[in-house]
Amino acid sequence: MTDDNSGAHDTYECDALVVGTGCAGLSAAVTAGHHGLKVLVVEKEQHFGGTTARSGGWLWIPGTSLAKAWGIVETPDQARTYLRHEAGNSFDADRVDAFLTEGPEAVDFFTSRTSVHFDMPLTFPDYHAERRAARRADAPW
Q1: Nearest in space to 40 (alpha carbons), one of 23, 19, 22, 24
Q2: Which residues, 6 or more positions from 51, have their beta carbon under 8 angstroms from its beta carbon?
Q3: How far apart are CA 76 and CA 61, in angstroms?
Q4: Model confidence over 93-134: pLDDT tens digits?
Q5: Phi/psi of residue 138, each to 5°?
Q6: 123: which residues sit within 8 A by CB, 6+ positions away?
Q7: How many CB atoms lie under 10 A from the CB of residue 40?
Q8: What is the value of pTM for the model shown?
C-alpha cells in the first residue's frame, strides 16, 4: 500500500490472503486461522459482510447437527428434490451432492473447532410457519 503518495510501500506478509468479507471469505479466513496460518482479509466496500450482511446472515444448509438438535429433519433426498426444482436447467448434481455432504460437516467444524456460533431461531423475516405447514402436505420436499 502506498503511504500518502510518497511512493513508500508497506509490506504485509501472510500465508492466506482473503478477498471479501462475505460468508465465504470470512469462513475461509477463520478456517485458515484455525490451521495456524497468518491471514489478511481485505474488503473493497465500506462495510464488512457482503451479501451475507444484507440477508441478515441467514444460510440454509440442510441436515446439520444443529437442525437435528431442534428436531428439524431434512434428508438429502428432500433437499436434492427442492434444489432440483428451484434450479431447473441450472441444476448441477455434483455440486449439489458436495453441498449436501460438505455443508453439514462445515457447520460442525465451525461449532466444534472455532468460536463461531450459529443461532437456530424458529422464525425469520421471510418465513411464515402457517404457510409452510399448509404447503408441507403438498410439497415433494
Answers
A1: 19
A2: 22
A3: 10
A4: 999 999 999 999 999 999 999 998 888 766 655 544 455 455
A5: -90, -25
A6: 129
A7: 14
A8: 0.72
